[in-house]
Amino acid sequence: MRTPEEKLLNPRPGSKIAEAARYGLDLTLVVSNLRRSPQQRLENLQGAMDSVEKLRLAMEAAKAKKRVESK
């Protein structure tokens, strides 16, 4: 009996998991994330959300600066 991790890392030919890998899904990232605790996953998600928010604010500031400079 193969573990879920083994199934993800070495999918059987023709399986849905193999199809996902062929499509381009990086299954090693899925396995890596599943090895984390739920708390660690939430912390990673919060970090990503913080980065997206910083990027959004920087883009807004750049747009505002461009508007001021074009006047």
**Biggest sheet, in brief?**
none
Number of spatially distinct domains: 2
Whole-number mean pLDDT: 95
Structural class label: mainly alpha
Estimated share of beta-strand residues: under 5%
What's the helix count? 4
Query: How many strands?
Result: 0
Q: What string gives the helices and strands in order?
A: HHHH
- In whole angstroms, the N-to-C terminal distance is 69 Å
Q: Which residues sit in consecutive blocks of at least 5 with pLDDT less than 50?
A: none
Report Rg: 20 Å
The rough form would be described as elongated
Q: Give the % helix.
A: over 70%
Describe this structure in words.
It is built from four helices and no strands. It folds into two domains: 35 residues, no CATH class; 34 residues. The chain is 76% helix and 0% strand.
Short description, anyone?
With about 70 residues, the chain is mostly helical. The chain has helices at about 5-10, 15-25, 25-35, 40-70. The protein has 4 helices and no strands.
Fold blueprint:
Blueprint: H1 4-9, H2 16-23, H3 27-34, H4 38-69
Features:
single chain; 0% strand; 71 residues; mainly alpha
